[in-house]
Amino acid sequence: MKRVMKLVGWHWHFVRFPFALLCGIYGVQQILLLLLSASNTDKIGVKLADLFMNCGQFPLFFFVLYLVLLVSASANQNRGRSHTTYTLYTMPFSRMVLPVAQMFLCLALLVIFAAWQVLLYAAAFVPVSMLSAGTMAGVVSGNIPTGNLLDEINANPLFQLLLPVRLGSWLWLVGFFLLLSVQSACVAVCHGFRRIAAMFAAMITAGVGAGALYLRYLIATDHTEESGVFLLLAFLLAAAILPLILNLVSAAWALYRSETL
Amino acid sequence: MKWNKLARPYRACLGTLAAGVALLLCGQACLYMAYPRQAVTLQLKTGNDKELEGFTLEGSWGQTASAAMEFTLSDGVLNQHPNLQSKQEDALSLMDQSLLCVPDEELASMDQQAEGGYVSGMYGAFFLHTSYEGMKYTAQARRLNQMYTLNTLDGSNRSVRFGLGQVQLPQAVTVTAELYKNGRARASYPYLMNAAELENADLGIREVTILDAEDPVGLYVSPGNGENGGIYLVREFCTAEEVAKVVPDVTVQGVAVPSENQPYGTVEAVCPLDAGESLIPCDNWGDARIEDGHWILTRQETGKINLLLLDKEWKPVGKCPLNISMNEYQSVTVLPSLRTDEIAFTVVDQSTTGQIVVLRINQNTIEAQSIMDFLATSAPIAAGYSADGTRLMTVTESRQSLMATLPAEVSGYYNGGAELPSDLSVLSSAVTGWDIQVYNTQDLQRPTLSACLDFGVSQRWRQELWLSGIYGGERRISLYRVTAAWEQAGEATA
User: Which residue range(s) make up the domain with B487?
Assistant: First the structure.
């Protein structure tokens, strides 16, 4: 375990700048889009949660999660600077350490990115509401009520997913992150053309997995009992897990041939 | 590269991760702590809070479709708890049809006098459309069978059909038969007409009202056609396959079509009404419950109003005459009762005042009765006696108004593109709580206690209401409601 954690630390060192850059660009575009929407007179009275959804930040968040997965996997593409590149040759180091460390690294990055999104949203609340109220005051005169952050968090489906209050929702969120992390580990150990194929399979898992996570949220909130919806959920889950199985086989083959090294 | 022990990369990683996890946990804690558990407050305006003893008022403040804050005001003590799982209604979704059909033995004579015409058309969209063609025959008939069909819309394709007697009309009406060629794309049917087309009530056509859509389905059939009204229960629905087996084919213009005169399924008469007695239609039927049963109001030809107490199976267990007068223009609304042995309803007409009637039932007889006048602008939403029956509580909605002025150019944008000549004033009212009044049953003029349950309406909801003014939409959100006593009892047993 100590070796795994050491490797996670080293690989974190390699990816911290690309990851910070990704978080930064995501944050800047989100704040900019929210402020631009809030200053739009066509959107008077639309609150932060709806502005967030209207700006397309909900699907974008899941797309950036996929980018986080790739950034995490890129740690192993380090042109010989990685600790592993020589230790795996020279030390009595199990090959399984590499994918396990990659999985933990990706899990950590995903959690940090989710926290970053919560922070961004909370930080955007005050300026966006002020700007929105100012825009409305320029157009409408009257008793204009203001909202509060808790209402905005409650009204935003993304935060219903990221800040679950029930055990079932927690398990789904952790399961989704684990799915992405395992895919990231597979992408990290594959090499050459198969790495591109693994990235593509990981994209399917990320997209369909996010769809399944959201569908499960809709099922839980709407208390639906229609069998068709559950069938769709089962189909989405199968579509998310199948590419994972393919990638696991591919990664096992890559590890066996030590082609990563 | 030499690393300082403190600056080793995994420490930075662990530190950032810890910060991230801490932030997410903070979010959780914030959601937990900021949850509006004390959103509802009780404010005493006049009177002593001892007056609230013996009353239990339960309600819910819905925040979304599924999440609600439930609160109970019991003996003057307010308790609240969130309920994130809303209850599922297990009511069937039903579609009914009342048809007047030509008796099977007269179809041949109809065929002779019928005038035929070619019918064709198509339905569906784009390349998925289906065309149909066939013949449509019209004829004149005076003697018709009234048949009532009830279909379930839950996908199980079940139905029940029963006859409501034969109608002899004073003058002939036009009946229509439609016969189609290409299979079951459109169902063919023999000569019939929809009973709803004959609006005149004097023809003896009986009306059917669905009293209870839960299984077993309860139906009220109005008197008419020489027969008394009554309540019927649907005991058995038939599936489409069973219907195809039971219903014989009849021949219309040489084409075999399923008969419309064949009853199927099982319907049981559980509560026949007396001659000249009819049910008084009420709004909000679902709350007309008492103990484990139901209740209905009936009117006799003499104008006398009766309260009919029924058991779970809608069988009558008691009948009590009420000394209130009611005319046909008044509408009755059932209120959710605060106790399982109480009945409350309001009677309003076009005027500005209405009456609320509260009854306490004991051993299937009326133990106490109160009738109170109210202004139509503040109609009670619930009422009931205290446990000892000495005091009466009424609950009304208290409202607040939100006002704004919208410039003409903006309102034009929001109101479907129609430019308005001047600025638009928007006034929208929101229910912000309930007003509670307690009266001594000996003196229903002056309340002995006046209090307010304030919901502290969330700003977001105010905004939504206010925007509904801008958008011109008729959005009515019933976020607050009284939980009837029978629902609470059901919860306890479930």
Answer: 41-88+392-493
Q: Which residues contact B482 (CB under 8 A, 6 or more apart)?
A: B57, B58, B59, B335, B336, B338, B381, B382, B395
What element of type H or E holds A186? helix A167-189
In a domain, A249, yes or no: yes
Please name the residues between 92 and 121 in chain A that touch chain B, using a CB distance below 8 Å: 105, 108, 111-116, 118-119
Number of domains in chain B: 2
Instruction: Give the orientation angle of helix A167-189 with respect to helix A193-222, to 10 degrees.
Output: 170
**Residue B49 counted as domain residue:** yes
- Mutation site for A-interface testing, chosen from B3, B13, B428 by largest number of A Cβ within 10 Å: B13
Q: Specify whether B160 is located in the same domain as B243.
A: yes
Q: Where are the alpha helices (DSSP H) in B170-239?
A: none
The count of C-alpha atoms lying within 13 angstroms of the C-alpha of B419, restricted to the half-sphere facing its C-beta, is 2
- DSSP one-letter code for B280: P
Chain A residues within an 8 Å CB radius of B406: 139-140
| Residue B328 belongs to some domain of the structure | no
Instruction: Look up the domain containing A58 and give its range.
Output: 2-256
Q: What are the Cα distances from residue B473, in Å, to B322, B419, B467?
A: 42, 17, 9
Asked if A144 is an interface residue toward chain B (Cβ–Cβ < 8 A), one would say yes
Q: How many CB atoms lie within 10 A of CB A256?
A: 9
Please check whether residues B113 and B45 belong to one and the same domain.
no
Does A261 fall in a domain? no
Q: Are B315 and B272 in contact (CB under 8 A)?
A: no
What gap in Å lies between CA A231 and CA B440, rounded to an integer? 59
- pLDDT digit string (tens) for chain B, length 494 residues: 555 654 566 777 888 889 999 999 988 888 877 777 777 889 999 988 888 999 999 888 766 555 677 889 999 899 888 776 655 566 788 889 899 999 988 888 988 888 888 888 777 777 777 778 888 999 999 889 999 999 998 878 899 999 988 888 888 889 999 888 765 545 788 999 888 887 666 777 888 988 888 888 889 998 887 788 899 999 999 998 999 899 998 888 888 888 999 999 999 999 898 888 888 888 888 788 888 788 999 988 887 889 999 988 889 998 988 888 777 778 889 999 899 899 999 988 877 788 899 999 988 888 888 998 888 778 899 999 999 989 999 999 887 777 777 766 666 555 555 656 677 777 777 777 889 999 998 888 889 999 998 877 665 566 666 666 666 554 455 556 777 777 765 443 33
Residue with tokens 């003590």: B77
A150 and B463 within 8 Å at the Cβ level: the answer is no
Q: In terms of domains, do B456 and B411 share one?
A: yes
Considering the domain boundaries, does residue A7 fall inside one? yes
A148 close to B (CB below 8 A)? yes
B97 and B66 within one domain: no
Quick one: B46 and B147 in the same domain? no
A224 touches chain B (CB under 8 A): no
d(CA B158, CA B151): 6
Residue B393's beta-bridge partner residues? B384, B438
